Amino acid sequence: MQRYNALPDFPENYGVVMTLTNRPRRLLHLDSSPRRDGCSRKLTQRFVTIWQQANPQAQILYRDIGQQPIPHLDEIWVAAYETDPQDRSPEMREAITLSDQLIDELIISDCYVFGIPMYNLSVPSTFKAYIDQIVRRDRTVSFQDGIPHGALKDKKILVITTRKFSYRADSGRAERDFQTPFLRAIFAVIGITDVSFIHADHLAAEPAIRQTFLTEAEQTLEQLALHW
Ligand SMILES: Cc1cc2nc3c(=O)[nH]c(=O)nc-3n(C[C@H](O)[C@H](O)[C@H](O)COP(=O)(O)O)c2cc1C
To answer: Among 91, 102, 140, 211, which is 20 to 30 Å from 152 by CA?
Structure first.
C-alpha cells in the first residue's frame, strides 16, 4: 500500500497527473478521531485494506487530522482568501498554503473515505476546521446568482461515523443528528453529491448491543469495499 501524508511528486507532476486518463485510481483516506485507538480509525482502515486488495493498482493518500489537527482560520488566512492570488503578500501566501494542499489532495483523488466521530451532535471541531480550509470560492466552488457550483463533481465519498447512540429514523433522536445533514450539505456545495454513510452506532451500549451494531457496520463496509 502506498501511503503518504503529502504527495512527494507535488506540485511538479501535478499537471501530468491531471492529464493522465489511465492512471491508477486514487483514494484519499482521512481520519479525524483524536484517539489513536478510535473505532472510526479501525473501520476506515478495514475498508481501505479490503478496497486496496480489490484495487491493487490504486494509490492511497492518507491524512490524519485527528493526530495532526488542521489549524482554524485566522485573520491573515481570511485576508488571503479575499485577495486575488497574484496580489497576496508572502504572509498571506504562507497562511493559505495548507488550504491549497488539502484541496489539491481532493482534486487529484477519485474517491474519499473519511472517518468522522460524532461530537456534540455534529462533527469534531478539527473536522470543521478542515471543511473551512477546503471550501474555497476560488478553488472548490463558484457562485452564480447565489447558487453554488462545486468543482468536485465526479468524486464520491464514503463517510464512516462512530456514535455513542443511534440517530436513525427509528431512534427518536433523528432530529438531533446535525452531523449527517451538515456533511451532505457542505459536500454538495463543493460538488460531491455521491455520498454514502456507514454508521457505527450504540458504541457505549452494553457489550452485546455494541457488538451487534459494530458487526453490522463492519459487514456493510466489507461488502461495499469489494465493489466501490
Ligand atoms: C467530546 C465528545 C462528544 C461526543 N458527543 C457525542 C454525541 O453528541 N452523540 C453521540 O452519539 N456520541 C458522542 N460522543 C461519543 C463518540 O461519538 C464515540 O465515542 C465515538 O466512538 C468516538 O469515535 P472514535 O472511537 O473514532 O474516537 C462524543 C464523544 C466525545 C469525546
So the answer is: 91
Tens of pLDDT, residue by residue over 123-163, are 999 999 999 999 999 899 999 998 999 999 999 999 999 99
pTM of the model: 0.92
Ligand 1 centroid, distance to 67 Cα (angstroms): 16
Closest residue CA from atom 15 of ligand 1: 164
Question: What spacing in Å lies between the alpha carbon of 204 and ligand 1's midpoint?
Answer: 9
Residue 122 alpha carbon, nearest atom of ligand 1: 8
The pocket around ligand 1, CB under 6 angstroms, is made up of 33, 35, 38-41, 117-121, 162-165, 203
Cell numbers placing 107? 482534486
Task: Domain ranges for the chain, please list them.
Answer: 14-227
Between CA 201 and CA 210 the distance in angstroms is 8
DSSP-assigned states of every residue in 17-66: HHH-SSPPPEEEEEE--S-TT-HHHHHHHHHHHHHHHHSTT-EEEEEETT
Spatial CA neighbour of 133 closest among 195, 193, 192, 190:
190
pLDDT in tens, 23-73: 899 999 999 999 999 999 999 999 999 999 999 999 999 999 999 999 999
* E strand or H helix that includes residue 144: strand 141-144
How far away, in angstroms, is 117 Cα from ligand 1 center? 6
Nearest-5° Cα angle at 103, 102 to 107: 125
CATH code for the part of the protein at 14-227: 3.40.50.360
- Distance between CA atoms of residues 142 and 135, nearest Å: 10
